[in-house]
Each structure stands twice: as structure tokens, then as C-alpha cells.
Please model this.
Amino acid sequence: MRYSSLMIKTNKEAHEFDSVNATLLQKGGFIERTMAGVYTYLPLGWRVLNKIENIIREEMDKVGTEMLMPALAPRQLWQQTGRQDIDILFMASGANEASIKKNNASYIINPSHEEIITPIAQKIKTSYKDLPFAVYQIQTKFRNEERPKSGLLRGREFRMKDLYSFHATEEDMLDFYEKVKSVYVKIFDRLGIGADTFITQATGGDFTANFSHEFQTICESGEDTVYIDKQAHKAYNKEIVDQEVDKANFCASRTCEVGNIFPLGTKYSEAVGYTYTDQQGKQQPVVMASYGIGSSRVMGVLVEKFNDENGIIWPAQVAPFQIHGVVLNMDNKGTVTQGERVLQQLEENEIEVLWDDRSGVSAGKKLAEADLIGIPWRVVVSKKTGEQVEVKQRKATETKLINLEELVGQVNK
Ligand code: ATP
Ligand code: MG
Model:
């Protein structure tokens, strides 16, 4: 992809926001703040978010089937479960007289989807033979947060993967719950934050009277504090520690909640009267669980954790491109031709390349932007590189001249 299609503001003045991720993602042209807690994903940012969500999707496909639920819901669904009064609910209604005249209804804008999926499951899956099953979606959620802050860490509109599972018995649900837990461990490993992410015992919040498990990632700008048992690689949140555990044995750490899983039991099925017919022909309540991952928050956490004074350092698996190509000396015809040849060869090898062939932009500025954007490999074509290219990995200080074939091999390794 050529630089010209990216919507990057190259003259952006240094502006510091309230967190590293907000600053670097906006300076680097990944996201643009539309209003407090609401961001646009520009082409670069959208690529990163998609890579994160595709990793989540690949792992989720092992335990559930993907679908998509609506953002709008009738208020009645939220009344049915008693969650109509939770303090983060948004409502949508006609914005002007003409619109209200056409339809004066108002709707809940979903902050989560237990209310939507449960009555659907109730219509379709009614026998013990239909259980267990699990469905998930990756979608935008809306919550009226009091204080949106820290860029992608806390928004009023954000992305979430949510999985819902349905079971005949509590035992079967808990079995599956453990399976999903290990899938979550795999996901955070693949996203590059496994070592710093701790399964944390927590209370159930608005979702369930039971316990729940949070996935908490060590992160200075996170809003949570958990008590970590490093040896066992698990943690307890403050509420649990206050009730049950001796604080002295754990090390307190600032963290950010990247995921949360809830053994819901029969709270939602009972609220809507969702039962299944058992083998004896009797009606039994369906046992449920739900499982969230904040995919846009993960993107923010990755930037908080992987950066230096020059910019972002993306883990290769979520980087927007594999190579950031920079053509210098664009006033030299030979260099321009050589640049085109290199780009073409990289693309023929199916390498994802961001290609900076702007003329009239200084070498210093181009190289600084490459560091800011944080793609794993930087490749320079200039008057000096001849038939070779000059390469540097994002964290390295040394550059070296290599042949294109060698570069392709290294990048694909
Ligand atoms: P928090 O305690 O941070 O407010 P929560 O416990 O209310 O989050 P859940 O209902 O458990 O959030 O949602 C599942 C996941 O969605 C969270 O683990 C988090 O990763 C993400 N998430 C929740 N709220 C936000 C938000 N306002 N902005 C970005 N991501 C969020
Ligand atoms: Mg939570």
C-alpha cells in the first residue's frame, strides 16, 4: 500500500494526550478522536484492529460459531432481565421532529448481548439434543462511561468479542468454561501479552451473582489493581482479596482488564423463561455462561506496553504491515525506478508493504515516521543502496545492506 492512501497527517505537531496509546496512535495516524471516548479507525489502525480480531476469531472458531447481533434493541428485552437501570445504558431515538414523526420509538444501544442472544436461543434450541452450543460475535459496544480516558483503554464506543454458551447442566457449563479459559490463554499468548496477563478471580458485576474471571494485563496506565501470585501465574482482584486472601503473600500491580468470563448459571434463562426438554420430557432451565474480550482495548494495551521514545513497536503478528519501505532521493530517476522494482518484488512475494515514495519530504522525517508507526522491518532504497536494500528491524540500532531475496526470507521467517 502506498503512503498516499493512508490519511496520515505528516505535519502533525507534537501533541501529548493523557496516555501513551492515545498519543502514539494519533500521532502515527492510526486513529482519530471523533469525540471523548469515540475514535475513528483510520486505514492503518483498522488493519491493526483487524489483525487482533482475526487472531481472536481463529481461536474462537475452536469453541463457537460466529454470528452478528444488532446494536439496537427494544427496551423490553432489558426490562425482562432487570438490567434496564444499569448506569451505562445508552438510548437511541429520533433526533429531530421529522424523524420522530416517522417513528417515535426509542431503543437501547446494546452494551452487551445476553439480552439479545437468550431469547433467540430460546426459539431455536429447545431440546437436550440441541445442547450444548456456543456462538460469538465481534462487534461494537456502547456504554455511557462516566469518564472515557486513556485512548482506546476506556471508550464510550468500543470493540468487543463476546461468546455465549448454553448447557443442560452446571457441570457441563463449568467444563466448557475451563476450556474457554485455556483458549483465552492461547489468544493472549498469540497477541504477545501472555506472560503479563493473569487470570484473576473477581466478583460477577452486573452479570451474575457468582464469581467471574478477569484477564488482567500488567499496564501502568490501567485502572485496576490486582494481587498477583507470580508463581501460580494467577491473581485476585481487590474485592476478593479484601474478603478472602492474605494480601501479604501477593504483589500488587497496576493492570488493565482485557477480558472477562462469567459463569452466568440460570440468571438470564430464568429471566426470559428459557428451558429445554430433558430426556424424561421435563422442562429444565438452560445453564449459560458469557465471555468477553475487549479487542480495541487490547490494541491500546499493546501500544502502552510496546513502545520507546521514538514510537510504537508492534509485535509482528498485529503490525499493520510487515515492511515499511522508504524511498529516499526521489529527485533521482534511478532511485525511483529501483524503488518501484523493489516494491513490485516484495508484493509478488505477498509481503505486506507500506511504501513511502513521497517526494519533497526529508529523509529525517520519513525515517522518524517509520519509527513512530512501528512496523517490524524498515527497508530503505536510496542513491547509496544500488541493487541491494538497507534494512533495519524496529528495535535495532544498526542497519545493513542485503539482497532482496535474503530480505524476503528473513521477513517470512
Ligand atoms: P471495566 O471494569 O474496565 O469497566 P467491565 O468489567 O465493565 O470493564 P466487561 O463487561 O467485563 O467490562 O466487558 C468485557 C471486556 O470489554 C472487558 O474485559 C474489557 O476488555 C472490554 N471493555 C469494557 N468496557 C470497555 C470500555 N469502556 N472501553 C474499552 N473496552 C472495554
Ligand atoms: Mg469486566
